[in-house]
Amino acid sequence: MSYNSPSFEQKIIAPADLAGAITRLPRPLVFTNGCFDILHRGHVTYLAQARALGAGLIVALNSDASVKRLGKGDDRPINPLENRLAVIAALECVSAVTWFEEDTPIERILQIQPNILVKGGDWAPENIVGAPEVIQWGGSVHSIPFLFDTSTTATLKKIRLAEGSH
Q1: pLDDT, tens only, 155-164
Q2: Cα separation of 149 and 137, whole Å?
Q3: How far apart are alpha carbons 162 and 166 in whole angstroms?
Q4: Which of 63, 75, 95, 103 has the smallest number of Cβ neighbours within 10 A?
Q5: Where does the Cytidyltransferase-like domain lie (predicted)?
Q6: Model confidence over 53-94: pLDDT tens digits?
Q7: How far is CA 104 from CA 69, 89, 99, 159, 164, in A?
Q8: Whole-structure pTM value
Q9: What is the pLDDT of residues 112-156, one digit of tens each?
Q10: What is the DSSP letter of 93?
């Protein structure tokens, strides 16, 4: 018996292919971005809440080099981009997933022109990259409060402490 690739893999869209793909995404389109290195409850709750703000959700992930430049640790990301893309694409609330090499997602935001721009509660709306541009073309910007005190950095710290105690 042969098995086909899971259908969620079709939600992974290379930046060069976004122009054609975004015309097929439902509007209003919500955009968010992040590393999403080790997926946890906070991530999936946030993504579901972001999706509920519109008809479709596109997520842009930091490339591996972009994550490294964020200063989260020498061993980050734990999961390479191709794995992070697949995990995010597998989520029901996500319509499409892409990535960016730069330090910020501004190029993807300008390329996609989402109706709604979203980041987590640690970002004030006026500090969200792309906020002025999205507002200028009539969109809205949201900062979604965190419901769960979870983070990949905190999880890794806990794992490393446990490893040190053996």
Answers
A1: 777 777 777 7
A2: 34
A3: 7
A4: 75
A5: 31-124
A6: 999 999 999 999 999 999 888 888 999 999 999 999 999 999
A7: 11, 21, 11, 29, 35
A8: 0.91
A9: 999 999 999 888 889 999 999 999 999 999 999 877 666 766 777
A10: T
